[in-house]
Specification:
heterodimer, A: 130 residues, alpha+beta, three-stranded antiparallel beta sheet, B: 115 residues, mainly beta, Immunoglobulin-like, four-stranded antiparallel beta sheet, 9 strands
């Protein structure tokens, strides 16, 4: 069971509380066994969909069947370490602006579970420490 | 163990069968954590009562049906709102609203996606 979490801020929504990404143990196992396609497969799908959203045609949008099938048919990239799997997950599930663009402070951090508060009384006031 | 790979499932009468394409059961309060899942790479705790489910392999479009069941340890279920803001072919936003429309954490969040 992974003991890591990824805390991050969305650069487009800095007024929102810091978010916490919780990896799936099942997915981490798949990643560490080498069952993932190249990350570019997901990026292509995300790019196409974001373009459809920007152009206001998301409700009728369908992925290109060939690109969609690559999720299952593309050659697997081989086993990853736990850290590599987390990095892959960050590039897959975090907003791309978090990690692909430079900011005046880090937009995400990999932390251990015990570094994330379990008291959620003021959850909407959480901010990433410098 | 053997794997069955098919494009369509039908019963003996020729009617389509539609298994879940993704599901997850997670704790949405305290230390947010996934209890069990299939085809889910991660969940995101966006803030109080606001979560996102990220699928391992996304769907061909965003016009799927997602069902969400929310509860506390007592088994009490509450209304749910699903925001359209970040609803894509591979991510679904879940907002756990109370009767007052404020968002609240829930001990039990169950999500199922069918397409």
């Amino acid at each position: 069971m992974t003991q890591y979490r990824v805390i991050f801020d969305d650069p487009d929504r800095l007024d929102e509380p810091t978010k916490v990404l919780v990896p799936s143990d099942r997915w981490m196992k798949e990643a560490m066994e080498g069952n993932l396609p190249p990350i570019s497969v997901y990026w292509e799908l995300q790019d196409d969909e974001q373009q459809a959203i920007a152009e206001g045609r998301h409700d009728k949008f369908q992925h290109d069947p060939e690109k969609y099938a690559r999720q299952y048919t593309a050659p697997r990239i081989g086993p990853l370490t736990e850290q590599e799997a987390l990095e892959y997950l960050i590039m897959k599930d975090l907003p791309r602006k978090c990690w692909a663009e430079e900011h005046n402070r880090p937009m995400f951090k990999i932390v251990t579970v015990d570094q994330v508060p379990s008291d959620r009384t003021f959850r909407n006031a959480w901010e990433m420490a410098a | 163990m053997s794997t069955l790979k098919v494009d369509n499932l039908q019963d003996t009468g020729g009617k389509g069968l539609f298994p879940a394409r993704a599901w997850v059961n997670f704790q949405g309060s305290g230390t947010v954590s996934i209890r069990a899942d299939e085809n889910v790479s991660s969940i995101t705790d966006n803030g109080g009562g606001n979560y996102t489910v990220n699928q391992s392999s996304g769907q061909s479009d965003a016009n799927y049906a997602a069902t969400v069941l929310l509860g506390n340890s007592s088994g009490y279920t509450v209304p749910t709102l699903r925001s359209g803001g970040t609803h894509t072919s591979s991510t679904t936003n879940i907002c756990s609203a109370g009767f007052d429309q404020n968002l609240y954490d829930r001990d039990i969040v169950e999500f199922t996606l069918v397409r």
